[in-house]
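Hi R.,

As promised on Friday, here is the backbone we talked about, encoded as structure tokens. Could you run it through your design pipeline when you get a chance and send me back a sequence?
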């Protein structure tokens, strides 16, 4: 899957990860359950209401470069 507009570095918010604007076609509830289960990368908190993920971790997920 080629998503040229997805960043290669930096941080991304959930709205950039999940479809229709992002490369991962799952719902928010499925995403958060996957984070809890360890299927999806863990987020980082930048503030009390700001949660982000490393773009390289998400890119590895949809490009199939994830170990495990």
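Update: got your reply. Pasting your designed sequence below so it's all in one thread:
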């Amino acid at each position: 899957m080629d998503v040229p507009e997805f960043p290669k570095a930096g941080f991304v918010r959930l709205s950039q990860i999940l479809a229709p604007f992002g490369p991962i076609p799952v719902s928010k509830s499925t995403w958060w359950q996957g984070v809890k289960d360890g299927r999806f990368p863990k987020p980082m908190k930048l503030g009390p209401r700001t949660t982000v993920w490393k773009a390289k971790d998400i890119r590895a997920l949809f490009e199939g470069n994830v170990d495990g």
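One thing I noticed while checking it: The first helix runs from residue 14 to 17.

Thanks again,
M.
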